[in-house]
């Protein structure tokens, strides 16, 4: 089987490279740039990609790489920082650019190459996604400049004889026009690899890994929320351990309307035992008076573990805990490989478990994005209607309710969400939207209802399109649809008198408000 090695220098887009490559049906692995004996490890792979990263090659302690990688006769593609490091280590010169390039940027192809074949013709321009301050001012010997940016910065370099290339933009990001073609060119036309990796391969690999990890006498406990992620993870795990899987569903009371019952029915349908713990009063009590979203997340995470720990004691021979953590959870909380990427916000199921719990953690989906999880679910036989559900945050409505959480606010948020979801399904646009939800603001506004003055709550609707949650664009909801939804919310939910629509993309915003 063909194998691609991705060396992670701390970019928040590193896993996007992996996702793109897997979508092209090539197997790949990500390793941190500081991995011991990286050069020896790389001998097991047929191609190498160096990721971007937040550092400058001139910084003290900046990540580097064993230079033997470049003389190993294996094809190498450097992306952003990877290209800068390549240039720096091979005798070129990297400096701070006179003009920094962030966001969309046009580049011009100066010379045809196997890397750009069928992607952009010589002399033509194409849109890419930039994110860098430094740039290569002088390229190493035997390299050619293949493309420049509109600011005359070097955008693509290549040494065709040694099959080493560098790009100063992120082909893995959706905003680069047809970036998959450029990656495919590197893998097929430069590295001469064949696409032989499928989602079924992933199931077989994960099942094999779990069977090797969990002995025949071990019990695995699954911490489930009833969402797509934990459900897919549970069914995948059940293929490996069978009835030795025990699912514990901590119902926080912060789920969508009627979701607790739906969760229970879903697991029973797939013949997976599930213990449902009604902990609504406990969570609401602990969240009383708490407004800060990070504090809410930490309280929910702590309570979840405490309640889970209490229930898990029923299984004295349980050694493992499964969580449905995705890569997008990890990358916004901590660097998945210990590389110097930035923490954006904490997630309730990220960061490990207290040592006193004496469980080893199994996260079979931790290197997957949401769209990959859905594809995996299809292979596992999960219904299409369930898999197409929009993402829902682990802390639930606690981070879709502004300021303090109360039972009254939870009921309002559930009703608003139900109206919003039912409406976009009725309009036939639910599947066009990657994620939609309503945020219950603590702000109040003056209104007029029945010839009387009201002073009630405001909610903010959000609907976005995205491929993987790393970037997002606003869904272009029509004025007619927005007006109908707003009317329904105000008329059907007592205590609401104003509805707004959020037009902010990611970046600069995150998808959720909190």
List keywords for this structure.
single chain; Rossmann fold; 18 strands; globular
Topology:
Blueprint: E1 3-8, H1 14-23, E2 27-32, H2 38-42, E3 47-50, E4 76-79, H3 81-89, E5 93-109, E6 125-138, E7 144-149, E8 154-159, E9 164-167, H4 179-190, H5 199-213, E10 219-224, H6 228-241, E11 245-251, H7 259-269, E12 274-278, H8 280-287, H9 293-312, E13 318-322, H10 327-331, E14 360-362, H11 370-379, H12 384-387, H13 407-426, E15 435-449, E16 452-465, E17 473-474, H14 479-492, E18 496-501
Parallel strand pairs: 1-2, 1-3, 3-4, 4-9, 10-11, 10-13, 11-12, 13-14, 16-18
Antiparallel strand pairs: 5-6, 5-7, 7-8, 8-9, 15-16, 16-17
Helix pairs in contact: 5-6, 5-11, 8-9, 13-14
How does this model look, in words?
This protein is α/β, with parallel strands linked by helices. It folds into three domains: about 5-190, Rossmann fold, CATH 3.40.50.880; about 200-385, Rossmann fold (3-Layer(aba) Sandwich); about 400-500, 2-Layer Sandwich (GMP Synthetase, Chain A, domain 3), CATH 3.30.300. About 30% of the residues lie in helices and about 25% in strands. It has 14 helices and 18 strands. It has helices at about 15-25, 40, 80-90, 180-190, 200-215, 230-240, 260-270, 280-285, 295-310, 325-330, 370-380, 385, 405-425, 480-490; strands at about 5-10, 25-30, 45-50, 75-80, 95-110, 125-140, 145-150, 155-160, 165, 220-225, 245-250, 275-280, 320, 360, 435-450, 450-465, 475, 495-500. The strands form three sheets. The protein has a nine-stranded mixed sheet, sandwiched between helices. Helix 5 (about 200-215) crosses helix 11, helix 8 runs antiparallel to helix 9 (about 295-310) and helix 13 (about 405-425) runs antiparallel to helix 14 (about 480-490). The longest helix has 20 residues, at about 295-310. The chain is globular, with a radius of gyration of 25 Å. The model is unreliable at about 335-350 (pLDDT under 50).
